[in-house]
Amino acid sequence: MIVDCHTHLSTNEEWGDVFLNEFAVAYKKTGIDLHVTPERHWKASASADKVIVFGINSKFLNMCTPNDQIAAYASAHTDKIIGFMSIDPNDSGAIEELERSVHDLNLRGIKMSPVYQYYEPMDERVQEIYKRL
Fold first, then answer.
1. Domain that holds residue 116
2. Overall number of domains in the chain
3. Which tens digit of pLDDT belongs to each residue from 69-97?
4. SS in 3 state form for 5-46?
5. Which H helix or E strand runs over 100?
6. CATH code where residue 111 lies
7. Confidence (pTM)
8. Cα(79)–Cα(92) distance, rounded to whole angstroms?
9. pLDDT (tens digit, 9 = 90+) per residue, 50-63?
């Protein structure tokens, strides 16, 4: 069984200008296209049996891939796609979004990133998220 455990479903608009500009500088000669629509993701995932997919939500970098979008894609392909939520500890509604993503959206894992979201992993706000998990 082949499981791809790290894939993104984010368009250029959702990645945000800050990240895309820095990515362009660092990887200007690679030809990597980060604009991933559901159709592109599905095609790229053809050889895997299961695929974990998520976006990254970061207030710091203005990144926003709605958890609802990930959930809709995952629910359309329940045999293959495993949707993860992205929770930004800097968001005042982080706990509520975590609860909504689990109970209403049926997302099965979480993506957090101290680098993109600019937080200390042992910060008290983050501890509260870890407790809920």
1. 3-132
2. 1
3. 999 999 999 999 999 999 999 999 999 99
4. EEEECCCHHHHCHHHHHHHHHHCCCCCCCCCCCHHHHHHHCC
5. helix 94-103
6. 3.20.20.140
7. 0.94
8. 34
9. 999 999 999 999 99
